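Late entry, written up from scratch paper. The run itself happened at the end of the previous shift, but nothing got recorded in the book at the time, so transcribing now.
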Amino acid sequence: MIDITLENFETALVAGSQQRPILLDIWAPWCGPCKALGPVLEQLEEEYAGRFELAKLNADEQPEISGQLSQMFGVRSIPFCVMFVGGQPVDGFVGALPPEQIREFLAKHVPSEEVLEADQDAATAEQLLASGQTESAAALLEDALAKDPGNDEARFELIKLLVAEGALEGAQHIYEPVAARATGPLAEQRVAAFGHYIEALAAAREGRSPQALEQALAADKRDFAARFELAQLFFAAGQFTQAMDELLEIIMRDKAWNNERARKTYVAILEVLSKPAPKPAAVPPGAPGAAPAAKLEIAGKHQVQSADPLIDQYRRKLSMALF
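Output as recorded:
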């Protein structure tokens, strides 16, 4: 449990909630319900064994923080608890609720033990991959998915390994539970990208050899079907820049070819190469569209991830080819 002040607000609460959820209990010494709620929250923090952290804020001593949060949520009484996740205040409740109701509230924001274990497995797998231990990494990613089927990045990393090994059926099996999210009006670009990746492997199995494709292109540089087939061979083999170079040749000559298939595949390669975007924090109920007062920086300081020069370079190439 930590006490929040103006001095440690940014480091302890905003930055701290980037690592794990923090429940901020806004209380006052004269508040009877606050005295009843405090021990319940402390017991729950112990029960959850580190899955969330409890923070306390004395409303009398820190009126600027408590006042701004109360205004954001439209709350005028205490005890008032605010959940911080990813550096943002995302939800809250008012009053000395019984433990079961608080558990229901926590369930919306605090990861289960299985989810935490899956995240740890995925993180360890990433370290193993960096050191070339692909078999051990694959086993950990499988364990992560078994514990948390909703762990998309563990799923995608496992698909990458399977495609690299040429294990088409295995990659299709891992992809199948999320395949529906790649289509329709709400299609998810990252999910669709890994669908394209698996399609490239399937096409590489059945298509012509690289030598036959090179001969076809030597005879006719505008043989876009052969060039696309060659790009898919490169894509499936993990030769991503070579694949994008071939796709650019098509895009520069015929942007709309085959229902923009070259552009869509190019974008898919960039997505496969990219790190996942950070999850956006939820907007607090009742919060105005404008950001909170800059003095407290409730919204936190989000660091922009360093760009990948290769990805940036090929994004620029695509932009130039399209316009």
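DSSP finds 14 helices and five strands in the chain.
(Scratch paper discarded after transcription.)
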